[in-house]
Design goal:
There is one protein chain. This protein has 421 residues and is an all-beta fold. It has one helix at 280-283, and strands at residues 7-8, 12-13, 40-44, 62-63, 75-77, 82-85, 88-92, 94-104, 107-124, 127-134, 142-147, 152-153, 160-170, 184-195, 201-205, 209-216, 222-228, 233-238, 244-247, 261-267, 290-303, 321-324, 328-332, 336-345, 349-356, 362-370, 373-382, 392-401, 411-420. The longest helix is centred in the C-terminal third of the chain and has 4 residues, at 280-283. Mean pLDDT is 92; it is low at 1-20.
Length: 421
């Protein structure tokens, strides 16, 4: 592990990184981004996505340590505690056999717990981010968050600020301490780290977003998602639950979250006594001491009609489909019929729309390429026929491989349209 401005004098770690029983990942809960705005399409952002199906960390995307923070005492971030295998990113905590003295930030700091951190090498801004993870059954943290690495000039020129966006923070067991509630559910925060013109530092937070759950985070895998929508708002997603929303603190800047941040997956010690320091027993127990990240995925919004890059290495994220927004709609009679629909496609597909009159005769159709991703669009069927008012017309939509036929249909849906003058 590389420490900036840090000197390690000695460290001993006990136990093995590879003695854990591999958890069951058969059961999936909700995954993937929410419905995109009209005219937009979600596409995978590969720089911040990883299925962790290899045998080592992808060092093109990730650091195996935190490049600007060595950890909160007594937990030291150590590259030796990060591994990839069996389809997971694993962060294994250990009790150090002897104290480790690190000279950092102008002083000597003592550590006796080995923690772990994985940090993106690139920064990112707006988008949807999610991970599927099972917490360690200890008081070490399991987290999924973003923060800036530098301070930015404030609105008064003499002040400055940094940003932190915590999609999820948790521990894996309860106990007799005030932060015991962190062992279940989902906990989301945003911090506007502000240094005023007098040099005084402030941690300005939006109200915390919480999802309650009776199960511990270490009992099973959960999916935690966050949609950083713009400079002012975010939405949070927990398994199959309806989303909850957050307005960022904006009393210093009108648009506070206006800078890119780095993704961080971290297992750390929390401040004592709010959360107690993990015991030697649990730290050295292979059945309890490991965080398992199944995957992490990031999505960005593009215009629905923008082509994807030629090389498409996107995993099969979706059950491919085409759906209408409702069963029946009404619109003014026109020779250009507006058809709102959404689709999900793992690769470029073809969507075929057909318009039928009330006797079942096809009177018009159109085809278009549905570029890979999750899109929300309005398509158009053009017809020269004089459409009748207050007579239901049927629209069918079929999604299939490009240059496919009816035998290769992946999904289909039906919509009825009533036309008005």
């Amino acid at each position: 592990m590389i420490f900036k401005h840090a000197i390690i004098f000695f460290a001993f770690v006990s136990g093995s990184l590879f003695a854990q029983e591999i958890p069951n990942t058969n059961e999936e809960t909700r995954q993937g981004p929410p419905k995109p705005p009209m005219g937009k399409r979600w596409v995978l952002n590969p720089d911040f996505s990883d299925e962790f199906n290899g045998t080592e960390l992808d060092t093109i995307k990730w650091y195996d340590h935190h490049p600007t923070w060595i950890g909160r005492p007594p937990g030291l971030f150590m590259a030796s505690q990060v591994s990839v295998g069996d389809g997971f990113l694993k962060m294994t905590s250990k009790k150090l056999e002897k104290d480790t003295i690190v000279h950092a930030y102008g002083r000597d700091i003592t550590f006796n717990v080995g923690g772990a951190a994985v940090v993106s090498k690139k920064s990112t801004q707006f988008g949807y981010y999610e991970c599927r993870v099972k917490a360690a059954a200890t008081t070490m943290s399991t987290t999924f968050w973003f923060s800036s690495s530098n301070n930015f000039k404030g609105p008064n020129d003499c002040d400055k600020y940094g940003l932190e966006w915590d999609i999820h923070e948790s521990i894996g067991r309860e106990g007799d301490f005030n932060g015991s509630y962190f062992a279940s559910g989902m906990h989301s925060n945003s911090h506007f780290w502000y240094t005023d013109c007098d040099g005084e530092k402030h941690d300005y937070r939006a109200p915390q977003v919480k999802f309650e759950d009776s199960k511990l985070t270490s009992e099973d895998f959960n999916i935690y998602g966050g949609w950083w929508q713009n400079e002012n708002t975010a939405s949070y997603y927990y398994n199959n639950r309806a989303p909850k929303h957050q307005k960022f603190y904006d009393k210093v800047k009108d648009k506070p979250f206006d800078q890119p941040m780095y993704m961080r997956l971290v297992s750390e010690t929390y401040p004592f006594p709010w959360i107690e320091i993990p015991t030697t027993e649990e730290l050295n127990d292979p059945s309890r001491n490991t965080v398992y990240y199944d995957w992490v995925r990031a999505y960005k919004l593009v215009d629905a009609n923008d082509k994807n890059p030629e090389e498409n290495t996107t995993p099969k994220l979706y059950t491919e489909n085409v759906v209408f927004q409702s069963a029946v709609i009404s619109q003014k009679k026109s020779n250009a019929i507006q058809v709102p629909l959404a689709y999900k496609a793992n690769q470029d597909r073809e969507i075929h729309l057909k318009l039928f009159d009330d006797e079942g005769e096809k009177i018009a159709d159109s085809k278009f390429i549905a570029y890979a991703g999750y899109a929300n669009i309005t398509s158009v069927i053009k017809t020269e026929i004089d459409l009748s008012v207050n007579t239901p017309y049927k629209v069918s939509a079929v999604i299939r491989p490009t240059n496919g036929d009816n035998k290769s249909t992946l999904d289909e849906s039906t919509l009825y349209i009533n036309f008005t003058e």
